[in-house]
Amino acid sequence: MTILTVAGLTLRESARRKVLRALGVLTAVLLGLSAWGFAKLSSVQSDTGVLTSGEARLAASQVLNLVMFGYSLVAALGTAFLAGPTLAGEIESGMALAMLARPVRRSTVLLGKWLGLVAFGSGFVAVAGLAQFVVVRATVGFWPPDPVVGLLLLAAQTTVLLTLGLLLSTVVSPMASGVVAVGLFGATWVAGVVGGIGAAIGNDSVARVGTVSRMLLPTDGLWRGAMHAFQDPGALTAFGPAGAGFPFLSEAYPDLLYLAWVAVWVAMVGGLAALSFARRDI
Amino acid sequence: MDATVRAGEQVLAGLPPSPAVWGSGLAKRYGRRSAVDGVSLTVGRGEVLGLLGPNGAGKTSIIKMLLGLVRPDAGEVLLLGRPARDPRSRERVGYLPELFRYQPWLTADEVLALHVRLARARVPQAGRREALAQVGLADRAGDRVGGFSKGMQQRLGLAVALVGRPELVVLDEPTSALDPLGRADVRDLVLSLKARGVAVLLNSHLIGEVERVCDRVVILDRGRVAAEGTLAELLGQRELRMRLDGVTPAAQARMSATGEVTRSGAEFIVPLPAEDDGATVPRLVADLVALGVRVHAVEPGRITLEERLLGILRHGEARR
Description:
Oligomer: heterodimer
CATH class of the largest domain in chain B: Alpha Beta
Structural class of chain A: mainly alpha
Structural class of chain B: alpha/beta
Order of helices and strands of chain A: HHEEHHHHHHHHH
Number of domains of chain A: 1
Distance between the termini of chain B: 59 Å
CATH topology of the largest domain in chain B: Rossmann fold
Number of helices of chain B: 11
């Protein structure tokens, strides 16, 4: 009961604060720009004349991955900066005092907030992602092979980052927790790209950078899975072995073991957040 | 077996209700600084207890420990008969924090509804309206809290503390943002809670406020209880101020027989015993006149809580 009350409160906070409006504007700008870009893409001329339908699909699928990365970044920024203030900000301002003096367990309050944020982040990813697919379909006629799996993986990526944001917000200030979470997200993505290049040039130790970072913070691993669901199945063969180093091309879905690790990671970081929050003096 | 349980229940039912607050040996350190050091206090059911003390005496820390917001380093707390570790101990507790702030994106009525849900109480909209009316916010129920002044937010905080029929209300500096009219409202509110048998723990800098509404007072200094008692116990002491001349050693001795004499110039202050039959003053004056003292003025007075508080705190400082 308390979980749902707090989850509802968190959703209402997101809706009533300027976050939702800001996200709406950003999404609309991204949608508009991408619609324009995709429309231009369909009329691009290559050396041999107008693009074949296969080439156009390939190009569209790659640009789609790039645009979806934009959304994943917006979702990451949005939830990380929501997750920070929602705990640390409430403690700092004193808003948490009256609420936590009620007959509630802190872990329940935290779980409620997490649930609200997950609903918000996943809702954003679903709505913005579907709108983007419709735009791509309307402009270049490309529809991603596995849209639902891709969006689920993207929502999982948002969940991972906001869980980290919640943990950070139990120990550091609201702004710092958002900045650190987004910074780590960016660093993992870069490490993933570096690892991809390592794999492409056959250097195992460089490739390991990506593997290790994907274990430490599973955002990049999930993002690569999502890309795989969005891209044209022919993209891999078209790019050949050199494609492995390209940041917006994914070779495979994450395996079940990795997904299980993600679940364990979220439970672990969430548990740590609950522990840290329960021990904190308000 | 059932009979044993029933017998046990009967014994329990026959016991007097546990105090609203029972705290024992509470201690808290922040780094190397000791904020609270071995404080024990009790608030009886329906009793109004005032917490007094200078800044940094540990009043807010104690309140936060009672409510489970701050983890005590040592000590135990029972709220309404349940250990404070159990969140259910706070089911019938209302709290206005010193740092009062409520969700700015909610309306006043939504804030109350949220707290009613968190308290697992059932208060229909009419009840919430009534709580808002009690604090003078009846016509602002549908307005967003973000647009409220500090004073209005504190009033909302009072409504939050009162909603859901609490059996214990903890008010931490409830009038810090209020105008004189608001302060009078809070005084009336506390008195009406007292009349309804609701226990109140009141932390306030305004000694006059405490003096008017509290049954008992705990005076804290540097994290320890410096004095505690009912107002009658703490203020039972009365004094006699006299302007005299021609005071002989014999007259001085006569005054000292009544109590410790404080002298500044021609003014003499003699404490009077708490149980005075009304004859102490005339008898003393008659004796002084008989001893040749010329009496210019005689003025009996009561020690105010403020004087008593300052006396206790200064005495504590002198000892250190």
